[in-house]
Write a structure and sequence with these properties.
Elements (H helix, E strand, L loop, with lengths): L2 H5 L3 H24 L5 H23 L8
Helix pairs in contact: 2-3
């Protein structure tokens, strides 16, 4: 998910996406610990997407520039 897609979503959609991404991130970490096949590239992508979403949410709460779309 790129930054433009994230900026185009509402706060509720971002909360939902964040929850889904965190769940997938947990499952990937669990798979890596148990030794089953897990992609480290996907893990990195998930962490970065979570960071992007949190950044947009933080900007919106502080009123910096990422206002919620209408």
């Amino acid at each position: 998910m790129n930054i433009k897609e994230i900026e185009g979503k509402t706060d509720d959609e971002l909360e939902y996406d964040l929850g889904q991404l965190k769940k997938e991130l947990f499952e990937l970490r669990f798979a890596m610990v148990t030794g089953t096949s897990a992609s480290s590239a996907r893990l990195r992508d998930l962490r970065r997407t979570v960071a992007r979403i949190r950044t947009i949410q933080n900007e919106r709460t502080q009123g910096i520039h990422g206002r919620e779309p209408r």
